[in-house]
Amino acid sequence: MRKKIVAGNWKMNMDLTEGAELVNEIFKGLPVLSEDKQVVIAPPYLHLTQTASQLTGMIDVQLGAQNCHSEASGAYTGEVSASMLKSAEVAYVIIGHSERREYFKEDSTTLGKKVNQVLSNDMKVIFCCGEPLDIRDAGTQNTYVEGQIKEGLFHLPESQLANVVLAYEPIWAIGTGRTATSAQAQDMHAHIRSVIAAQYGGDAAANMTILYGGSCKPSNAAELFACTDVDGGLIGGASLKAADFLGIIEAMADL
Ligand code: PEP
């Protein structure tokens, strides 16, 4: 049975004190989660060791990172490698977020290398895909997203796919307050699952966790998560307020 996940991407927000307080607040309100459900907190790099120590002993809340470098080590000033993240007890690494693709010009070749770095260091990838508004308006979103998945992931053997989580994040819904409807999310998630099935077979597709991201909040999480092919969410803005993030976790806990 595939896992359901709610992952919080803090992006470039929170100083160390604020981050520690947020994690404490989340702990205070965390509902009991069944074994097939998982929370991931992905703070900025600077927070990782602090957050890791706060998460010590927690099974249902795991540490995530928002990025890593595509090479294993070397003269890349300011960068952080996958093995460093592993040594900081990171379990999940977000790769291919639309902000990385847009602002840092990360292309499919780079993303494929990052995926390899994460997997070869025994962590899981949260691989983001999603179309911009003009592609949605043109009605070609399925082909577009399919291309992102093929280019970023299809070099992997099936054995490694179990360590990949997909996150469908329509760019027009990220941080805009404009959420995809549950029908739009379900349509795309079903398409993504069929793309995985065509390449890796039905079992791999059935076991793949596919998250929705884009203005997910407590008021719409339950409806989105109720869709057959939506297995939780990657949460930006609403992961920065304990009450909102907990409301979304509750929606997953109730499934
Ligand atoms: C994101 O950036 O991954 C995201 C989903 O952001 P938001 O929830 O703020 O739309």
Cα-atom Rg, whole angstroms? 17 Å
* Helix content range: 40-55%
Question: Mind summarizing the main beta sheet?
Answer: 8 strands, parallel
**SSE order, as H and E?**
EHEHEHEHHEHHHEHHEHEH
CATH-defined topology: TIM Barrel
Structural class: alpha/beta
Give the amount of beta strand, in percent: 15-25%
Q: Return the average pLDDT rounded to an integer.
A: 96
CATH class term:
Alpha Beta
Domains (count): 1
Assembly category: single chain
Bound molecules: phosphoenolpyruvate
How many DSSP-defined strands? 8
Task: Describe the protein.
This protein is α/β, with parallel strands linked by helices and 255 residues long. It has a single domain (4-253), classed as Aldolase class I (TIM Barrel). It is built from twelve helices and eight strands. The protein has helices at 16-29, 48-54, 82-87, 98-103, 108-120, 133-138, 141-153, 158-161, 182-200, 202-207, 218-225, 242-253; strands spanning 4-9, 37-42, 61-65, 92-95, 124-129, 164-168, 210-212, 232-235. Strands 7-6-5-4-3-2-1-8 form an eight-stranded parallel β-sheet. Helix 2 links the parallel strand 2 (37-42) and strand 3. Helix 5 packs across helix 7 (141-153) and helix 11 runs parallel beside helix 12 (242-253). The model has no long low-confidence stretch (mean pLDDT 96). Phosphoenolpyruvate (PEP) is lined by residues 9, 169, 174-175, 213-216, 234-238.
